[in-house]
From TrEMBL:
Pfam family, one: CTP_transf_like
Protein name per Swiss-Prot or TrEMBL: Probable nicotinate-nucleotide adenylyltransferase
Pathway the protein acts in: Cofactor biosynthesis; NAD(+) biosynthesis; deamido-NAD(+) from nicotinate D-ribonucleotide: step 1/1
Upper classification of the organism: Bacteria, Pseudomonadati, Pseudomonadota, Alphaproteobacteria, Hyphomicrobiales
Signal sequence, start to end: none
Length: 191
């Protein structure tokens, strides 16, 4: 079985997240995609974070594809970082082929994630195009460091069969939606 892992705050989830999920399912030939709704994000402010329960409920309302599973198992891991979560997933599911899914906008700061090199060597990574990140992804530290492990976009259907490190960039339709922008439109305006 081939499963995509798409982690994030989903604060709030939106059609752009859904587009990334649909592209990953279709282009990578995945059987399932797990949305891993994180309890928190060490690179983002907790003050703006809706409760985990609220974010899970919003994800459930948005998702209608039975191949997409909404999860929050990271909470039970006690605030684990992504590298720890992926090691846990790998140990518990030795017969499943996983691919880490991320938006191209996250690639710019990927080198700031704890144990980012370990993440890149745990599972293959599919980077999905996002507005403003199409060309800049090549200059990211991750892309430069793992340039030798880049899989041609024409071969993305076999990415889940690759041994990490292996990564690809997938071009396609892009959504300009962002959780940050959505939160900003809902923030109280000064009088």
């Amino acid at each position: 079985m081939a499963v995509g892992l798409f982690g994030g705050s989903f604060n709030p989830p939106h059609a752009g997240h859904l587009l990334v999920a649909e592209i990953a399912l279709r282009r990578l030939g995945l059987d399932q995609l797990w949305w891993m709704v994180t309890p928190g994000n060490p690179l983002k402010s907790r003050s703006e974070l809706a409760s985990l329960g609220d974010r899970l409920a919003m994800c459930e309302q948005l998702i209608h594809d039975p191949r997409i599973k909404i999860t929050a198992f990271e909470k039970a891991l006690g605030g684990a970082y992504t590298a720890d979560t992926l090691a846990h997933v790998k140990a518990r599911n030795p017969h499943i082929h996983f691919v880490w899914i991320m938006g191209a906008d996250s690639l710019q700061t990927f080198h700031l994630w704890q144990k980012w090199r370990e993440i890149a060597t745990t599972f293959p990574i599919a980077v999905i195009d996002r507005p403003g990140a199409t060309l800049s992804f090549l200059s990211s530290k991750m892309a430069r460091t793992f340039d030798y492990a880049r899989v041609d976009e024409d071969d993305v259907g076999t990415l889940w069969k690759q041994k990490a490190p292996a990564w690809t960039f997938i071009h396609g339709p892009r959504s300009t939606l962002s959780s940050t922008a959505i939160r900003a439109t809902k923030a109280p305006q000064p009088e």
